[in-house]
């Protein structure tokens, strides 16, 4: 028996839901039909893709996880085939799967999505939100084609979109209000650090500058940081890009040493992503070049 795309689509739905009933609902087919299709696929491959668990439903086996990555690649190739064909007739269609962290979703995506939809109304956009480390995993296992993340970009191909820098935030009547630049070395024990899900990358940057914030108060979101600073629990330390995605009314100060990072879009290979995704990347790059004059 040959594998067909329908078998793989059912398998991917079951692997994402890890529940036969939920997969059936998502596919608008019966539960027995899902079970039968998975059994046919397992028989064709002569492996177990799932193990059944009374409490958790179904769990992917090790080989099941490998097959899932390959199935997503096949789905992506099918999507690219249709997009290439529709591009030839100037009716670009299909789906773009994007991973993004919340600040990037708020600041970089709305304008690009609006422009893209106006030009390509038949293309669907599927957004997955998480933190940079999660998004890199999603790109690796083909859950998404492209991801908006903070540097370092490690093994991924990337296009840089924004140059970002760290800032300090304080209440208006803080003792440092008239200080031009906040010295991180001098005040490092007073800092509340907003990691925002970029722990590994940010710890590396801070170590380069011989700063140790491990014993300090750390938070995950800019909103939490703002509340902490308003309660005078310390000096807020956050990247300007993240801070600009929320309203705060606090005083913003530059810091020394200067700490920078990049925000960019990544892919396993830009040569392998779909025409629609490549066009979306191009539009984002054009938006940021226009905005910042790069």
Automatic annotation (TrEMBL):
Coiled coil: none annotated. Pfam families: HTH_1, LysR_substrate. InterPro entries: LysR_HTH_N, LysR_subst-bd, WH-like_DNA-bd_sf, WH_DNA-bd_sf. Residues 3-61 form the HTH lysR-type domain. Keywords: DNA-binding, Transcription, Transcription regulation. PROSITE patterns: HTH_LYSR. Belongs to the LysR transcriptional regulatory family. This is LysR family transcriptional regulator. It comes from Paenibacillus ihbetae.
